[in-house]
Amino acid sequence: MTETIIRIPSQELEELIAQKLLAAGLKEAFAAEMAEHLTYADRRGIHSHGAVRVEYYAERIAKGGLTIDPVCSFEQTGPSCGVYHGDNTVGHVVAKRGMEEAITLAKETGIGIVGIKKMGHSGALSYYVDMAARQDMVAMSFCQSDPMVVPFGGAENYFGTNPIAFAAPTNNDRPIVFDMATTVQAWGKVLDARSKNNAIPNDWAVDGLGNPTTDPYAVKGLLPIAGPKGYGLMMMVDILSGALLGLPIGKHVSSMYEDMTAKRDLGQLHIVINPAHFTEIEAFKAQLSQMIEELHQIKPRHGFEEVLYPGELSERKAIENEEKGIPIAKQVYDYLVSDAVHHDQYENANAFAEK
Length: 355
Ligand code: NAI
Description:
By secondary structure, the chain is an alpha+beta fold. Helix content is 36%, strand content 16%. The chain starts with a strand and ends in an 18-residue tail after the last helix.
């Protein structure tokens, strides 16, 4: 079955999302900020972390799995570092607050490292590092996610898809924004293959015995990127964003779906570096812009039209989608304009269930 896609203006999408989150019980300011993040993701073509997730968040908010009246605070623990206590409210809001604190520290001291302790799912990490790059900072962000990846050589899941994001400013308004899960493919891509009855490449996932599989229905675990290297990276992410904050890691990270009434206790870490403390900022930005120009001039190999910099496709999509409207699945739109807060479909949904 092919999905029908419709385009709607970004402002309309943002308002619809905010209304739904408000209906689920979130306070107005938080609903607006979360809607802004989710629309950012859809605008930039990161549809896996945009409007499609609203019903999941609405169910979790309505069932108490996210704190709607949180007591959050920033605890500065050293000249350049601190912990933002998230009180298990929506990750999108507290991870943004944490980034604001990290940028302030970096502006003052050259570096800002802020851990966000106890929060819900925080969406697309590019959002946070992009904020910093647009203020002439270099930034990295790491966060935990629930265990659905086999460690290198293993036949059981242990780590999450633990993403890494990085951004740096250039001498125009388009920063370099690199943002990726540490798995070869997201679970959403396996679902897509199921819906189209397609086989999957044999380096995406494993079956119940830990063997590579091309059958999307046999998938029981995802594979790290580049074997032991991706495995090492996802472990690093868990240590930086989980263990460093005294939070559960690995297979002890809470499930996305198992209990929608439970708080998730997730962690995230932002590292912001102020280039002006290391070099001359304008020269730094010009050097990165020159690098991009040189990359654009690289002869593309067969099958490629051009060489792009990380985040360039998203920048292009953002411009196109602002003009033509943001593409979202009709099914998602129908839910957003409906009276339903949610349809109880995520409670107990196994990450590897068919939905
Ligand atoms: P992806 O595979 O779509 O892109 C990865 C990177 O490759 C991006 O920086 C992109 O700009 C770059 N890229 C793509 N095509 C390119 C090309 N032709 N030339 C140059 N660069 C190119 O990303 P992935 O791994 O599917 O992650 C999607 C999102 O999911 C991210 O925003 C990530 O933060 C988010 N995520 C969030 C989690 C959470 O728990 N909050 C967990 C896992 C992922």
